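Long-time lurker. I teach an intro course on protein structure, and each term I like to show students one example going from raw sequence to a predicted 3D structure in token notation. This year I'd like something fresh instead of my usual example. Would anyone be willing to generate the tokens for the chain below so I can use it in lecture? Attribution to the forum is fine with me.
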Amino acid sequence: MTEPPAIFLLANDRVLANVIQLLYSLRAHGFPNKLFYVQFNEEIHFLNKVSEVFGIEKYDVDLARIDALGRRIYDEDPPAKPYPYCLGKLRKLSFLTFDGPAVYLDADCIVTAAPELFSGIFSMARPGLGYINTSPDGVYEDAPAAAALRARSTFLTSGMIAKSANPFDISELERFFDDAAVRLFHQVRRRGGYVDQPLWNLLVDCGFCSAVDLLADRRASRVTSVTGDLTLQPDGSAAVGGLPVLLLHLAGPALKASPRYRYLFDGMLLGGLRDIAAGDPAAFAEINRFLFTR
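-- Reply from a regular --
Happy to contribute to a lecture. Here you go:
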């Protein structure tokens, strides 16, 4: 039987409510996948307590080298404020070093599909990366220097990325981002607060690795937001246009303010808090104070 991909997320205490929602959604759908978190920074006191209840392990392979690479790329031209705090987003690169199939998910997601379908789609037979959505807005500037890259780019989004069983070595990234590559990156990357999405696309578009569309066969919908066409099933799954929805991503203020978001995501938060209370009452009391008295 094929090993289901390990699931990685990037997190700290600031996104604790999102983490609880995601972990509870995985538990509610019966996911057997190994779970790991990469720490965004050192603020992980409450995250560690949640991780113990849900059985998620910390993954910290080569974080110091990734931090150093981020500073070498961005120190002269920071992508966002506060800096270098924002470089924590690059730490998701660590999941590439995992020896086995894996998928990275942004912490502000919930899964809405059966584990068999999810793992089947995010499992990759060939070396490289896999994506389910694209967005040209957050990748390259519409500038002459970026024309060739834009012409061949898939414009993959970096909120959900799969990798094959083959691990990458951070030394490969360090060699790729030589002075010439860094100069090219700053000539072409999209400004406006984008940190890691232009970088992931440059890796693919300059031949560091290949990328494959995991939904080219239309086994599931590309929808990852709460839309008017979304239908919820009694088992907690979701569908659009007759196709199953793999996950929902909390992206943008409109979604955060929608009643349907409140119903879905807050329901997952409540379920997760209930499990924490049952598994570790002392941790629940501390987490409850942290979340609701800030």
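Some talking points for your students: Residues 169 and 261 are 39 Å apart (CA to CA). The mean pLDDT is 93.
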